[in-house]
Design brief:
- Helix content is 51%, strand content 12%.
- By secondary structure, it is α/β, with parallel strands linked by helices.
- It has one domain: P-loop containing nucleotide triphosphate hydrolases (Rossmann fold).
- Strand 4, helix 6 and strand 5 form a beta-alpha-beta unit.
- Helix 1 crosses helix 7, helix 2 crosses helix 3 and helix 3 packs antiparallel against helix 4.
- The longest helix is centred in the middle third of the chain and has 19 residues.
- It is globular and about 40 Å long.
- This is AAA family ATPase.
- InterPro entries: NadR/Ttd14_AAA_dom (IPR038727), P-loop_NTPase (IPR027417).
Length: 180
């Protein structure tokens, strides 16, 4: 899907803030599956959260990401920006369980060939009730994704550590440069 753009990278690196900026500029955005699942589990007392049952959490994140991908098809030729997606969840599940799910899912659920990663940014990283993992774990996640996306045929662009409007401009300008 050449109009489905993944925003991924380091947890706590400013993805959600950037997606809010893109939404404010009139673009369709899809909230991170993991954040939705954590909020749901915390309100219902469920255990499908990373700190209780990582495997169940990741399987649910894959299902939610697949549903998000399908629903986004209804936006026609509009740009749709995803805060993570199928590949992020499948990469994590494979890392946790060793189950080879990534290749099959990545070939079935495609996104724009350019993926944007936010780098580790310790100065803005914050743990909270929904993000309990350490900065070291967030960096390991970033490094894994930075390695995986190119192996699946995606071109990776790192977004600058800058104010949100500068980041949004960089992302949109890169998409224009690619001619799509």
């Amino acid at each position: 899907m050449d109009r489905f753009v993944i925003l991924s990278g380091c947890s706590g690196g400013g993805k959600t803030t950037l997606l809010a900026e893109l939404h404010q500029r009139g673009y369709t955005v899809v909230e991170e599956p993991g954040q939705r699942l954590v909020r749901e589990a915390m309100s219902s007392g469920g255990d499908a959260v990373p700190w209780k049952n990582m495997e169940a959490f990741l399987r649910r994140a894959i299902t939610l990401s697949v549903n998000d991908h399908a629903q986004a098809r209804g936006h026609g030729q509009s740009w749709v920006f995803f805060d993570r997606g199928v590949i992020d969840a499948a990469t994590a599940l494979e890392a946790v369980t060793g189950e080879p799910v990534l290749t099959a899912l990545a070939s079935r659920y495609r996104y724009h060939s350019r993926v944007f990663l936010v780098p580790p940014w310790p100065e803005i990283y914050q743990q909270n009730s929904e993000r309990r993992h350490s900065m070291d774990a967030a960096v390991a996640e970033f490094e894994r994704l930075q390695e995986v996306y190119p192996t699946l045929g995606y071109r990776v662009s790192l977004l600058p550590k800058a104010c949100v409007s500068t980041r949004a401009d960089a992302l949109l300008n890169t998409l224009r440069i690619t001619g799509l």
